[in-house]
Amino acid sequence: xxxxxxxxxxxxxxxxxxxxxxxxxxxxxxxxxxxxxxxxxxxxxxxxxxxxxxxxxxxxxxxxxxxxxxxxxxxxxxx
Length: 79
Hints:
Elements: E1 8-9, E2 20-21, H1 28-36, H2 41-47, H3 53-67
Helix pairs in contact: 1-3
């Protein structure tokens, strides 16, 4: 099984270095804000057809690790 957190990337040239999904211009924060507002996963995937269910799960896993303070600092990945 793929490590979901590997779907979250950092690139100083994309979205000001914020955590993004698979080097795309979709931030983890954007997805978390939709979920926090009560948006369904199905609607998010419909609004962003390039995303996969695993991307949303990765955002949640990333948020969990950040709040647990167990996130590992990853080397910046260039697209």
